[in-house]
From TrEMBL:
Swiss-Prot/TrEMBL keywords: Nucleotide-binding
Lineage: Bacteria, Bacillati, Actinomycetota, Actinomycetes, Kitasatosporales
Function: Nucleotide-binding protein.
Entry protein name: Nucleotide-binding protein QCN29_12520
Family statement: Belongs to the YajQ family.
One Pfam family hit: YajQ
């Protein structure tokens, strides 16, 4: 019997982020507490730009955006936000979406699989993803359950389970 495998990736669907951003923008334009504050959220190249007249307003925009991301099933670990910065009379906050597993994070995950996972399970780093193989599908299910219990500082998805 051939080996079974799955890939561990850290990817975010751009369309879902776009939808969350549009929903947040619509809510900001309709909310009474944002009237007259020049509050907005939009794409600025590959980053997301949030701006308003006060630091608390920018943080409120971020909170709205995060709630929309969660409703769309996107982990907040994939969102990398900076600190609000004063630019003229406006406060600006940039956020970016983190994708891909770095080499050091992939090695951490592989080490956990090696140390705590069932015997006979192999993990290989392939670029910005990790391939896990085993002869037993039950062992692969055990590895997925093990990794879901861990608290990483990056989002994980399990794809290509075969």
């Amino acid at each position: 019997m051939a080996d079974s495998s799955f890939d561990i990736v850290s990817k975010v669907e751009r369309q879902e982020v776009d939808n969350a951003l549009n929903q947040a923008s619509k809510e900001i334009s309709q909310r009474y507490d944002f009237k007259g504050t020049n509050a907005s959220i939009s794409w600025s190249g590959e980053k997301i730009l949030m701006q308003a007249s006060g630091e608390e307003r920018v943080k409120a925009i971020l909170d709205i955006f995060q709630s929309k991301l969660v409703k769309r099933g996107i982990s907040l670990k994939a969102l990398d936000t900076g600190e609000p910065q004063l630019s003229g009379k406006e406060h600006k906050l940039f956020a970016s979406i983190k994708e891909g597993i770095s080499q050091e994070n992939a090695k951490k995950v592989a080490k956990i699989i090696r140390d705590e996972g069932p015997k006979g399970v192999k993990a290989q780093v392939q670029g910005d993803e990790l391939r896990v193989t085993s002869k037993s599908r039950d062992d692969l299910q055990t590895v997925i359950a093990l990794l879901k219990q861990q608290d990483f500082d990056f989002a994980l998805q399990f794809v290509n389970y075969r």
